[in-house]
Amino acid sequence: MTKLTLEEHKKLSQACSAAEARTGARLALVTVPVSDHYRLYPFVYGGIAAVTVFVLLALLLPHLPVRAAFVITAAAAAYVMFMLEWMPLRLMTVPRHAKSWECWELARRAFAAHILAQAERKPGIVLFVSFGERYVEVVADREVNSRVPQAAWDAIVAEFLAHARQGRTAHALLTAVESCTKVLEQHYPPR
Fold it and tell me: Is the dihedral of CA 153, 172, 185, 29 positive or negative?
């Protein structure tokens, strides 16, 4: 999972402040390591491992004492659950649609907190990035969506992904913030 340095966070914060000074809209960048901890999945896969091991033991070793079968089964379940405590491995086991849903939901909550909940009501967007799920989205309010076509945001996301795949995450974020600012400047000049 990508981690930004303190210096990179500082540059991104400055870029967002500069963006808000150049446009009459609000722009927020929200980056998270993961959108959810997916705490249920180690238990689910541990349970699946337990049932699978128990069935295999019953089929392959029918004379194995039940107590020994339960100990082996519990050990297999505990091993799987322990392995899935490592977040990169856990993320691999979570279905894509579940990860996308969690990211989508957290992006909307970030939008509500950073744009809608502000005392001064201004149109705005949130550039949301979840590093663990490799999810990027621009969430815009109705007014911005009515003026800016979705293709503009899609192009910014595609450009971000191209830079991020090269391992230049901080540069990708700075470029995306600048691109979002340019789009907002066209439709919302500074007040």
Answer: positive
DSSP letters spanning 32-52? ES-S---THHHHHHHHHHHHH
Q: Which of 4, 30, 9, 182 is nearest to 105 (CA)?
A: 30
**Residue 18 is inside which H or E element, if any?**
helix 6-22
pLDDT digits (tens, 9 = 90+) for 25-66: 999 999 999 999 999 999 999 999 999 999 999 999 999 999
pLDDT of 121 reads: 83
- Mean pLDDT (the chain) is 93
How far apart, in whole angstroms, are the C-alpha atoms of residue 82 and residue 90?
Answer: 10
Distance CA 56, CA 69 (A): 10
How many CA within 13 A on the CB side of residue 47?
A: 4
Q: Do the beta carbons of residue 111 and residue 139 sit within 8 Å? A: yes
> pLDDT of 62-109, one tens digit each?
999 999 999 999 999 999 999 999 999 999 999 999 999 999 999 999
The answer to whether domain 6-37+95-187 has CATH 3.40.50.800 is no
Q: What are the φ/ψ torsions at residue 134 (nearest 5 degrees)?
A: 55, 55
β-strand partners of 93: none
Give the residue extent of every domain in the chain: 6-37+95-187, 40-93
